[in-house]
Amino acid sequence: MKFLLESLEDLDKQLKRHGGRLHMFKGDPCSVFRRLWEDIEINKICFEQDCEPIWRERDQEVMSMCQELGIECIERVSHTLWDPKLVIKTNGGIPPLTYQMFLHTTSVIGTPPKPCPGPDFSHIKFGSLSSSLAQELRVLDSVPTPENFGLVKEVGDKLVVWVGGETRALQHLESRLQAEKEAFAQRILLSNQTQPNLVGSPTSQSAALRFGCLSIRRFYWTIVDTFNEVFEDLPMPSQSVTGQLVWREYFYTMSVDNPYYAEMERNPICLKIDWLSRTDPTYQKKFESWKNGMTGYPFIDAVMRQLLAEGWVNHVARNAVACFLTRGDLWISWEDGLNHFLKYLLDADWSVCAGNWMYVSSSAFEQLLDCSYCICPVNFGRRLDPYGEYVKRYVPEVRNLPLEYIFEPWSAPIDVQEASKCVIGKDYPERIVDHNDVSAQNSAKMEAVRRRLVNKIPHCCPSNTEELYQFMWLPPEQHDHLLGDDMN
Ligand SMILES: Cc1cc2nc3c(=O)[nH]c(=O)nc-3n(C[C@H](O)[C@H](O)[C@H](O)COP(=O)(O)OP(=O)(O)OC[C@H]3O[C@@H](n4cnc5c(N)ncnc54)[C@H](O)[C@@H]3O)c2cc1C
């Protein structure tokens, strides 16, 4: 909420520089627009297409109202690179079931439109509201704070502070482009995947894209232009940042006509898996330990605590904790993980988040359904955080342990635990499960699901195995080491 309000404040400041301001109303859109139309003769309403199915009804009502009142209504696609409805139409009326099919369909449509230039305000005359109408419509005098909405902070001061707004997003874009350019010059296409940096200052634009602070077209095209500057005539390969943006598109397209996309039972593309029942006596303890970063696996706990504290975590870290909650270790439904992510992620996005959860939990988009490929919470952490800096930052309990035990503190001899003030069961929790045991059991369960379901229902799956590795941000040399279920 803070990020969103900062974004509105930034917009307000920009408009004020041109002699206008941002008017913020609280209420039902149709009632507000109708009153404005009665009083100040609105003759045109423009808005961006919101492709989440739950907003369709709201936007439809505004369009019908415009038709009734003779107001021109313009809805444009700019939150996505392509219009999801057009992609579906081009694919013969159904969403493309694989990412490769999606790429093929969009190649038929053509490259995404270029970004429009910034607006020219020189001939714009800003309107104003009478004080009585402003009072009646409860126009907010200044940008409200989260507290005005009854929201209070759950945690103290954050280590990393994200600031909302276009101004900040454009500054970030500049430094991101510089970093990409340097990486391209070294022939590295996905610098943040090849060397994920968990402790450096974050470079992500996902929240800015989510809230519309940064135009997706501008992001896409500046990356393509930077690539072309370095590689001249070579076409941009799909394994690049623009490829990541296309995943975002793919998930939007898969969800645009599917109101049940974020759940298992009624969702036609989601495999039905018998996850641990919420009434199981072990459920609560397992789920709470995951949410609060108290699983006893320091890497998993670091990620979950960073999420609570800062609202953003790296993609590789999201993969690790999502796999741990679902098919890897705890066998808890991805829907529960999704709801937690939607509450705490700064870039929380219904379509993108649910799509990723289904992918990582092997519930959709995933052909392999093979739990022998689940993420090892020890080896994976060690590889991504070789000096334990990330884990120590968020899990101070293990800070004094020698590096060799930081990712598996239970294996430290008791005298080492005592000397490091990290006695397992006292200063830091016991492992909630033994990864070796449960991942083998879960693998067998997944195998059974595969036999039961996979050939019987139409199933969204990866186009090929390589695509799976790319999605998980795993360079080829790391496949066996990081995904194997042996922890020794
Ligand atoms: C379980 C899980 C939940 C996730 N939930 C969200 C979410 O709610 N919102 C969200 O924006 N991303 C989500 N992601 C995707 C991804 O983790 C973030 O987009 C990514 O961490 C953003 O980092 P970046 O901007 O540095 O990525 P970059 O590599 O810089 O990618 C550029 C942009 O591409 C898009 N993108 C990158 N990876 C993905 C992906 N796997 N799927 C869809 N779009 C992608 C994002 O908009 C991102 O900002 C989730 C991933 C997982 C595994």
Automatic annotation (TrEMBL):
Alphabetic keyword roster: Biological rhythms, Chromophore, Cytoplasm, FAD, Flavoprotein, Nucleotide-binding, Nucleus, Photoreceptor protein, Receptor, Repressor, Sensory transduction, Transcription, Transcription regulation
Family from the record: Belongs to the DNA photolyase class-1 family.
SUPFAM superfamilies: Cryptochrome/photolyase FAD-binding domain, Cryptochrome/photolyase, N-terminal domain
Entries under InterPro entries matching the protein: Crypto/Photolyase_FAD-like_sf (IPR036134), Crypto/Photolyase_N_sf (IPR036155), Cryptochr/Photolyase_FAD-bd (IPR005101), Cryptochrome/DNA_photolyase_1 (IPR002081), DNA_photolyase_N (IPR006050), Rossmann-like_a/b/a_fold (IPR014729)
Cofactor detail note: Binds 1 FAD per subunit.
Residues binding FAD, per UniProt: 203-206, 244-251, 347-349
Domain Photolyase/cryptochrome alpha/beta intervals: 1-81
Keyword presence, ATP-binding: no
The protein, known as: Cryptochrome-1
